[in-house]
Amino acid sequence: MQDFRRLHVWQRAHAFAVDVRCVVRTFPPRGYADLRSQLTPAAESIAHNIVEGCASASRKEFAHHLNVSIKSTSEVDYQLELARDYRILPYDIWRRLAREVMEIRKMLTALRRAVLRSIEQEEMPDGPPSVEPTKLEETKPDAPSEYLTEPEETEPDA
Q: How far apart are CA 115 and CA 142, in angstroms?
């Protein structure tokens, strides 16, 4: 188990979910309830699944939750495009959000690949050289260190 707040991808996904919620509030009050009710939860699902994955008992389960997050990015990507085509989302805002969700998807995919690679290394019959199999979990973080950052101490807005 690890602190999800230290993952760069969670930080980006969290900020993205907040941004999407703010944008959805600008949609016309009538006629787009279905899109509104799907877009915000899908955007939040990206970060939710990262959080749930960080609490997983195994790396395999963590990789599964990252995969669900990746699927949520695709869902959000399409819903943003739909909102643009309905002309309720201005092109410049759509482009900014679409670029961000693509970057988040790339980050999730890279992290998932690294987690799966670490699982494969653990499953090697002889184990990695110079590391005893019983010590492996203690010596490797759940997410590779290049995906981590120190959490910032911030106070919530009043």
A: 7
The one-letter amino acid at 140:
K
User: Which helix H or strand E contains 18, and what residues bound it?
Assistant: helix 8-24
**DSSP designation for 142:** S
Backbone dihedral angles phi then psi of residue 156, each to the nearest 5 degrees: -65, 150
Residue 87 region by backbone torsions, left for phi larger than 0, else alpha for psi between -120 and 50, else beta:
left
* Total tally of structural domains belonging to the chain: 1
Confidence band, pLDDT 50/70/90 cuts, at residue 127: low
**Is the pLDDT confidence value at 128 over 90?**
no
Please give the structure tokens belonging to residue 131.
Answer: 């590391």
pLDDT at 120: 85
3-state secondary structure (DSSP) of residue 89? coil
In a domain, 155, yes or no: no
pLDDT in tens, 61-107: 999 999 999 999 999 999 999 999 999 999 999 999 999 999 999 99
Place of tokens 């195994």: 58
Q: What is the CATH number of the domain that holds 19?
A: 1.20.1440.60
Output the pTM of the full model.
0.78
- Structural domain for 137, as ranges: 4-147
Nearest to 147 by CA among 61, 58, 62: 62
Query: Is residue 19 in a domain?
Result: yes
